[in-house]
Amino acid sequence: MPRFSGLVTGALFAVLLGSVAAPSLSAQRRRPADAEARLDELKATAAKEVDARATLVQQVVDQIFSFGELGFQEVETSRYLVALLRREGFAVETGVAGIPTAWVARWGSGAPVIALGSDIDGIPQASQVPGVACRMPLVSGAPGHGEGHNSGQAVNLAAAFAVKHIMEREKLPGTLVLWPGVAEEQIAGKPFLVRAGVFRDVDVVLFSHVGTEFGTSWGATWGSGLVSVLYRFSGKAAHAAGRPWQGRSALDAVELMDIGWNFRREHLPLKQRSHSVIVDGGDQPNVVPQTASVWYYLRELDYTGIKALWAVADSVAEGAALMTGTTLLPTRVLGAAWPRHYNRPVAEAMARNIAQVGMPVWTADDQAFARAVQRAVGQPDSGLKTTVDSLDPPVPPARNLGGASDDIGDVSWTVPTVVLHYPANVEGPPGHHWSSAMAMATPIAHKGSVAGAKAAAMTLLDLLLRPALVDSARGYFREVQTRKVKYQPLIRPGDQPPIELNREILERYRPAMRAYYYDAKRHRTYLEQLGVEYPVLPDSGGTCRVTVRRRAEGR
Ligand SMILES: [Zn+2]
Questions:
Q1: Percent of the chain at pLDDT above 90?
Q2: pTM above 0.85, yes or no
Q3: What spacing in Å lies between the alpha carbon of 515 and ligand 1's midpoint?
Q4: Cα-to-centroid distance, 149 and ligand 1 (Å)
């Protein structure tokens, strides 16, 4: 159980942190005032260095938005980012962990080793013209950045390049590592990176994730962990009208598994969440389906709960095979995520930096656009937040109702990790949805990502210049977080990353999507290239009037 129970929590943390944090606190007290002053000065320089890279941030945000690639098919995205990193002098290893679109970029030498990560994949059917507050796909049916994963690498690159410049000038030791969250939406990348040893020599992971707020947290978060399992059944084909008695329907097994699961749901712990899609439902009605498969996400609050839920699902699948005279083939684990737990000392340092950076300055246009996006999905039109969030404390297990998952959980149980939420999107949309793409290549995303890059760069400097902080991070990880709970992978030794996922979707849509790839050499921004005069708001009849230009027309 990666949790501490109710009343014990506060006392336990106090005792443990007392023993862990004491040396670092006294070390901090001994730290000469000039070291403090130097750190503050370098942080101010870092913020300026990030501002000097605002165009880089805008270009990376816009470029990856325009690629709009789904998990494991982030081919253009990875090629683009790897080229940028190599140009900056990073040594990049590609095809990491058997995943063609995963890479690890390194620069610098010695300790500490700080790894910056962020997701890069999009959402199915979320193609959307940015800067337009009406549903308007760029390519109908195509994927798009309906979460905002196009912005996190812009945050990380700007922060890393700014700090690299400072490290070179100040001759600071340390190693910067950049890496992508591949196929986060399938929860299918990070456990494989952990297994491949990507984080073996890493001291701290700073992860960036798009948000509508500017903040961070420590301890156990809200939400769930999960295992993602493909159940495949094998039956016997037959003429469905002529000789049905000779057939055994694999689709029947899938349907009965779903029915069985939905009855069993009543008797599952309240905090489970589970959902499925049928990925193979047979070929045509007059052929008894000889293959069928159903893909389940099984979510629970902790490792033990996930394993228990998974065992129930396995038994329901076996029962469905028995009822239908079909065979349950060996299951495939397509992905997994541990529940998340973030590092207290690093989160506290990051929160101070967030407060110092403050929220971006939103214009009246930004606020009008945000309100229109909120109205477009029937949400209160509160606009964009104007104050930073406080540091979120741990979520007590008793109050965690479960929810979304993120495979950063596996990283967070492997190495001290924090997640920076930077304000680059609009609050209100249902999530995993085209409306969450509307703002993601507009000044809202650009300014929010610049603010995030400043907080990330300043936290990097904290880690590089205050060895005591890295010690406290390690102390919290060892003595508090993992004192009773040890990471055990949910992926099994034989499970391989499902790199074939989404291949057919991208093969179908990529040719049409290419007509809208951002060409930063010809156009200052993606909005300019598309001919979108931001913000495009609906008229009184609810219509957004805009003619979107294809890339080819500009040539
Ligand atoms: Zn995400």
A1: 91
A2: yes
A3: 26
A4: 6
